[in-house]
Amino acid sequence: MVGNMDLTDLIRGLQPEIAGIRRDIHTHPELAFEERRTSDIVARYLEGLGLDVHRGLAKTGVVARLQAGTSGRAIGLRADMDALPLDELNSFAHRSVNTMRMHACGHDGHTAMLLGAAAALSKTRNFDGTVYFIFQPAEEHEGGGRVMVEEGLFRRFPMEMVFGLHNWPGMPAGHFGVTEGPVMAGTDRFDIKITGRGGHAAMPHQAVDVIVAGSALVQGLQTLVSRNTDPLAAAVVSVTRFEAGFADNILPENAVLGGTARSLTPELRDALEAGVRRICAGIETTYGVGIELHYEPGYPPTINAAAPSAICREVAREVAGNEAVKTNLPPSMGAEDFAYLCREVPGCYVWFGNGPGASGCMLHSPHYDFNDDIIATGIHYWVRLTERALETK
């Protein structure tokens, strides 16, 4: 077994190699379910450590198994691998070489840190049980976590808890946010087509105006939060598209609206959907238009369970210090498909401070870059989390 000082030295020795892998992945980003090069890098590295490596879940997913001791207990550590459809505007040497492909959310860093943890744990093995390293494709919008679950992640690799993290620009580098309960919102999408009767702008009485109906619909949807939701409950309904018309003197026949509804509990999520449907029906009757609503469920809320959250708090404080761990951060209204894993087994998803970043930018910015200075802390967190969750009795 490796002591604390030796573990620190071990991780410090791994840091340059892991940072190099991170930058290589950043240079060659791949979109959802297309992470073939990244998946190959991950699998080869894990096989080189002697881990039992499985490929093919959700097309490009990788799951590696490391066992120590005799316990039948098991946990999972998850990192996401996909990039965003975005042109990078950075000028450093490891910038993306792929057009409309960029690691603008730090998944390159998440993947690299988990590889570093696998390397460290394969040497220390200071735990009793099994740890599964889960490298997931398609977090950005495409639901790779859901696909992995549907294709048997937890049937093939049974585990009692699962853990994830996400770098967080604006939080001091190496600090942690660990919140029990809702941590990310559920998000659903809607598309609404309004059909009326087109006509001359000078004779609106001869037409059925879809722009007026659509404007009323936008206003009505805002009441779902302002007048139908408890002010202490977090929810957002945003109309982000409104397309209608093509000439100043023509009232269009059709209008199309779209947007998202976000909430932190399954109950409120259901209430928002019912509200969208109710308001569409009311506008249809009031304005004499036809409305076609397509409501598409997206990621559910990500809810951290009590037991794994307690372990994460304890380990984060050990690794970063008491003052560097926040336990009362408000949930983000963004969404995360780690939620699908948390619905199957108790899980915890934490924020990991990325600092201000090289240019002070936030996630999904064309100027974003992961902060390599936090890699060692991230590896240390994963190693100690594994040791704590699978303590030797």
UniProtKB/TrEMBL annotation:
Sequence positions that bind Mn(2+): C105, H107, E140, H166, H364
SUPFAM superfamilies named in the record: Bacterial exopeptidase dimerisation domain, Zn-dependent exopeptidases
Cofactor binding annotation: The Mn(2+) ion enhances activity.
EC number: 3.5.1.32
InterPro entries: Amidohydrolase (IPR017439), Bact_exopeptidase_dim_dom (IPR036264), Peptidase_M20 (IPR002933), Peptidase_M20_dimer (IPR011650)
Pfam families the UniProt entry points to: M20_dimer, Peptidase_M20
EC top class, as a word: hydrolase
Limits of the Peptidase M20 dimerisation domain: 189-280
GO molecular function: hippurate hydrolase activity; metal ion binding; N-acetyldiaminopimelate deacetylase activity
Gene Ontology BP, a term: diaminopimelate biosynthetic process
Keyword terms of this UniProt record: Hydrolase, Manganese, Metal-binding
Domain of life: Bacteria
Cofactor(s) the record lists: Mn(2+)
NCBIfam families tied to this protein: amidohydrolases
Protein name: Hippurate hydrolase
Source lineage: Bacteria, Pseudomonadati, Pseudomonadota, Betaproteobacteria, Nitrosomonadales
Gene: hipO
